[in-house]
């Protein structure tokens, strides 16, 4: 279930609608090579799927399974952030 920040960022972007690889690259600011590798990894896991080709670009969309995994990671990260806040605020009086 563990996803890295790049994967979570891509799924979050796609949860709002389909995007091209070029559009995703504008948002996540990583090299095209690394982005394509990450997209392929997400496709193999069944989190996203290709929807169409436009010239030399690919349009991708999140799958239902990808939405489920994004939600599970959101819940985990939300709880982790709350715990971090408690620990840090105890130490730094925030």
UniProtKB/TrEMBL annotation:
Protein name: HTH marR-type domain-containing protein
CDD domains xrefs: HTH_ARSR
InterPro entries (alphabetical): ArsR-like_HTH, HTH_MarR-typ, WH-like_DNA-bd_sf, WH_DNA-bd_sf
Pfam families to which the protein is assigned, alphabetical: MarR
Domain HTH marR-type, chain residue ranges per copy: 6-49
GO MF term set: DNA-binding transcription factor activity
Superkingdom in the source lineage: Archaea
């Amino acid at each position: 279930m563990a996803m890295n920040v790049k994967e979570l960022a891509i799924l979050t972007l796609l949860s709002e609608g389909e995007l091209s690889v070029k559009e995703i690259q504008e948002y996540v600011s990583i090299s095209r090579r690394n982005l394509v590798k990450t997209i392929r990894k997400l496709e193999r896991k069944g989190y996203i799927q290709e929807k169409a080709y436009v010239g030399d670009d690919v349009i991708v969309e999140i799958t239902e399974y990808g939405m489920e995994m994004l939600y599970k990671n959101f819940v985990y990260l939300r709880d982790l952030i709350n715990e971090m806040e408690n620990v840090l605020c105890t130490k730094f009086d925030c």
